[in-house]
Amino acid sequence: MRFAALALLGTLLAAPAAAGAEPEPTRLTTDGSFKQHLQWSPDGKTLLLTRIHQGKMALWTLPAEGGELKRLLPDHTEPHFDGHYSPDGKRVVYVYDNLQGTDGKLRINVCNSDGTDDKTLVPHAAMEESPRWSPDGKRVLWVSTRGKNPDLYAVDADGKNEKRLTSDPAADLHPAWSPDGKQVAFSSGRSGRQKVHVMAADGSDVKKLTGGEFLDAWPAWRPGWKQIAFTSNRSGDSDVWLMSADGTGLVNLTGDPAQDTSPAWSPDGKRLAFVSTRGGGSDVYVAAVK
User: 45, 46, 252, 263: least surrounded by Cβ within 10 Å?
Assistant: First the structure.
């Protein structure tokens, strides 16, 4: 099975409760189609997401207050997903899957935020996934299996000066830059099940933040706070949790029996977007967080 499929399936495991969020999140979509990989635009007006619609996986945009879903790259017929806005909101990096029979050659592409000027940033060498702009817009972090297992790599915004940041035999996944660009949070199976870890931006000083016999993944740093949201199944089902950047102070933000995944913070850190099945299908919700 492709690493891409494994990464998507892994997000459907997490936990319950609501201690820091408002009781009733606002539901932004009602179509119920599969959604994942939420990200807020830097101006706070738009949500970027992966959506499977009419059997096709693609990048879609959604007004942050709710409204019409729109394809970002309507001319692309092959799967493309996991987009991430540059800090100035002018560009998007994403995964492009050049299908080859039953599998594909994943690479990292970059385009303007309106979908124009689309080009390859990281050519296919293995499975190339989870691209993330650095806060200063100068580097892109991503996951690659070019070293035989999933590790974190970084490259300049022009595609030059590639550097490998991790080299553990376990899978290192789901990278997220800290708001100041000095650290990277990620999930790793180096201690058994996937746990949230943090390291310096150059790959040094790796520390495990979460423990226990649970699956913890998809960390998302909260702007303006020294906190990280992540998904976990530590309460028996998939929920979004919040912790301090040192791993203390765990709080369950979503606390619903449904599957709650894919946390994404608004630029001011006051609202959290996430994907939930609480309405029957897979839809986008937004909650205020204290």
Answer: 45
CA gap 227, 128 in Å, rounded? 28
Residue 133 CA: distances (Å) to CA of 20, 94, 168, 251: 28, 10, 23, 27
Q: Are 290 and 20 in contact (CB under 8 A)?
A: yes
CB 190, CB 179: distance < 8 Å: no
Q: DSSP letter string over 213-269?
A: SS-EEEEEEPTTSSEEEEEE-TTSS-EEEEEETTS-S-EES---SS-EEEEEE-TTS
8 Å CB contact between 277 and 258: yes
Per-residue DSSP letter, 178: -
- β-strand 46-53 against 56-63: which pairing, if any? antiparallel
Q: What is the pLDDT of residues 160-181, one digit of tens each?
A: 999 999 999 999 999 999 999 9
Q: What is the pLDDT of residues 226-270, one digit of tens each?
A: 999 999 999 899 999 999 999 999 999 999 999 999 999 999 999
Query: Quick one: residue 269, left, alpha or beta (phi over 0 = left, psi -120 to 50 = alpha)?
Result: left
Q: Tokens 């390859």 identify what position?
A: 120
CA separation (Å) from 266 to 50, 64, 72, 118, 193? 17, 9, 20, 26, 29
What single DSSP character describes residue 289? B
Taking alpha carbons only, the member of 254, 261, 255 closest to residue 275 is 261
Q: How far apart are CA 250 and CA 248, in angstroms?
A: 6
**Residue found under tokens 């990464």:** 7
Q: Which residues contact 140 (CB under 8 A, 6 or more apart)?
A: 93, 108, 121, 122, 131, 132, 133, 134, 154, 155, 156, 157
Confirm if 29 and 283 have CB atoms less than 8 A apart.
yes
